[in-house]
């Protein structure tokens, strides 16, 4: 299977009320390198003008963006119980 096909096998129960990752757009728009865009294995970050757009619905909960964002432009917690990703192959 390709990476995209493997990602497509995962199941996501999205918490529509409480996002587990929240961006600080004022910090993101001043970040020149935007490492999250290249580092997120699920491709959830997209450059949008000076800032980034983001959709937490397909998050793999790997924590890469939390570590790589040296500008401290996001808050990151695990999803509440019963929400989040359910891996089908590991
Ligand atoms: Fe992407 Fe991983 Fe951050 Fe989720 S935790 S948004 S999959 S880098």
What tags apply to this protein structure?
90 residues, alpha+beta, Alpha-Beta Plaits, two-stranded antiparallel ribbon, 4 helices, 23% helix, binds iron/sulfur cluster, electron transport, iron-sulfur cluster binding, transport
Provide the fold topology.
Blueprint lengths: L2 H7 L1 E3 L7 E3 L1 H4 L6 H5 L5 E4 L2 E4 L9 H5 L5 E3 L7 E3 L4
Antiparallel strand pairs: 1-6, 2-5, 3-4
Iron/sulfur cluster binds next to helix 4.
Tell me briefly what this model is.
With 90 residues, the chain is an alpha+beta fold.
Helix content: 10-25%
Largest sheet: 2 strands, antiparallel
CATH-defined topology: Alpha-Beta Plaits
Q: In oligomeric terms, what are we looking at?
A: single chain
Distance between the termini: 14 Å
Structural class: alpha+beta
* Poorly predicted sequence stretches spanning 5 or more consecutive residues: none
Query: How are strands sequenced across the largest beta sheet?
Result: 1-6
Shape: globular
Integer-rounded radius of gyration: 13 Å
Q: Enumerate how many helices there are, as a single number.
A: 4
Bound molecules: iron/sulfur cluster
Describe the structure.
The chain has 90 residues and is α+β, with helices and mostly antiparallel strands. The protein contains four helices and six strands, in the order H-E-E-H-H-E-E-H-E-E. The protein has helices at residues 3-9, 25-28, 35-39, 64-68; strands at 11-13, 21-23, 45-48, 51-54, 74-76, 84-86. The protein has a two-stranded antiparallel ribbon. A two-stranded antiparallel ribbon has the order 2-5. Strand 3 (45-48) and strand 4 (51-54) form a beta hairpin. The longest helix has 7 residues, at 3-9. The two termini are 14 Å apart. The chain binds iron/sulfur cluster (SF4). Iron/sulfur cluster binds at residues 21, 40-42, 44, 59-65. InterPro entries: 4Fe4S_Fe-S-bd (IPR017896), Fd_FixX (IPR012206). Residues 19-50 form the 4Fe-4S ferredoxin-type domain. Pfam families: Fer4_10. One of its GO terms (molecular function) is iron-sulfur cluster binding.
């Amino acid at each position: 299977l390709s990476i995209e096909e493997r990602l497509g096998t995962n199941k996501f129960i999205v918490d529509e009320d409480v996002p587990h990752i929240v961006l600080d757009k004022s910090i993101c728009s001043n970040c020149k390198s935007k490492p999250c865009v290249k580092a997120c294995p699920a491709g959830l970050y997209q450059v949008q003008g000076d800032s980034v757009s983001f959709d937490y619905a397909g998050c793999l909960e790997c924590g890469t963006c939390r570590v790589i964002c040296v500008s401290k432009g996001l808050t990151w917690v695990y999803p509440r119980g019963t929400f989040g990703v359910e891996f089908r192959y590991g």
